[in-house]
Amino acid sequence: MRPRSAALPVLLILFPLALALAVAQQPPAPAATPPAAAQPPSQVTIELNRGAGGRKIKIAFPAFRGQLGGDGAAAARELEETVRRDLDASGYFEIQGPDVLSGLHLTGDVQKDLAAYKSTGNEVILLGEVKNEEDRLVFDGRVLDAGSGQAALAKRYRGPYTVSRRMAHTFADEVVRALLGKVGIALSSIAFTSERSGAKEIWVMDYDGANPRKITGHHSTSMSPAWSPDGTALAYTSFFNGPPALYLADLASGHKRPVVTSGSLNTSPSFAPDGKRIAFARSLDGNVEIFTTDLDGGNLRRLTNSPAIDTNPAWSPKGGNIAFTSSRAGNPHIYLMDAEGANQRRITFDGTYNDGAAWSPEGDLIAYASRRDGQFQIAITNVGTLETQVLTSGPGENESPTFSPDGRKIAFTSRRSGRKQIWVMELDGSNQRPITTEGSNDMADWSRGVPPQ
Question: Can you give the pTM of this predicted structure?
């Protein structure tokens, strides 16, 4: 079986290895100083009638004010463009930008301009102002109720020009939280495996594919990254010291250390939601089973005991269950068990090969790769009803799904362009688009916490 989120070539490496049994170092990008935020305004409630169908909120977003030169101008431009992209990518907003708003008669006095903004259907207004202070960028962002003009959000950020994207992501997530009370994804990151530097190493990028940075430098095969719940560390599998073993990378310090290296196969890590344990696949007496371990490699516990191959565990968000892949029914399928190994039961029945389970943040859905008509596609199954939907179609393998922290998007590996790349789509399978283009990339895992930069 493949390690969690592995694509087919890795399966062809590790599955024969499992059958045979049963058969440098580069630190992450420097941490950016988090921008300081101003005190929030008094509590203001904006009534937003989004409707049963989830109608998007109409938001007026004029160009940010401020005249900057040189590096400051470039940073300010990146900040504004990133906020626009983040809010658009969230799927919550219908944005009226400067082109649409240019047809309005605006005086620059917000209170006087409320009627004009509302005349084109806007419910809220987003205003921004940028300036320089001692070679640093200062950004003031506000969100106003288009009816009353009252501020629902007011934030100030100050930092080097190099953190303009971080400022933008932070503000965009604040907008989502203020208007909808929901988690934003702009500050989230995606870990993945890439061969762009030669050897297969672990990389991390922003949620939109920007700002890629290499985490490992083992000059060997490193794969299957798994985020810790707080986003500060990555567990992964590497062959750099011999047989596949588990390692842990601390992102702030860049330090890597072994977790479990004994034996001939340790792979497919998945963190418990409390961050204190890792579930993984381990060879025991010539067969692959599911184990758990503490972060120091101690307290090894075996959860499965089957003559089949059990692998690719995925811990549920609330910690009560672990999904895994097993060939005990013949072909590989997705199974569930309690976190202590009890109550093992099969939940996939369609498709000839189902593997690589990934939980939605709410724990109600599992996404996985399902072979249909000889081709791997991304499918999701409701854990309660077992209702299943196939999200991708057409030629080119589609594998390795992972949910965004808000549960509204899925990142996955696709070969449709000939080379493996990370793609993203909406939960219903719409709006599929690549977010990597350089080299060969796969095995994505989307962070839950906010990783250090």
Answer: 0.89
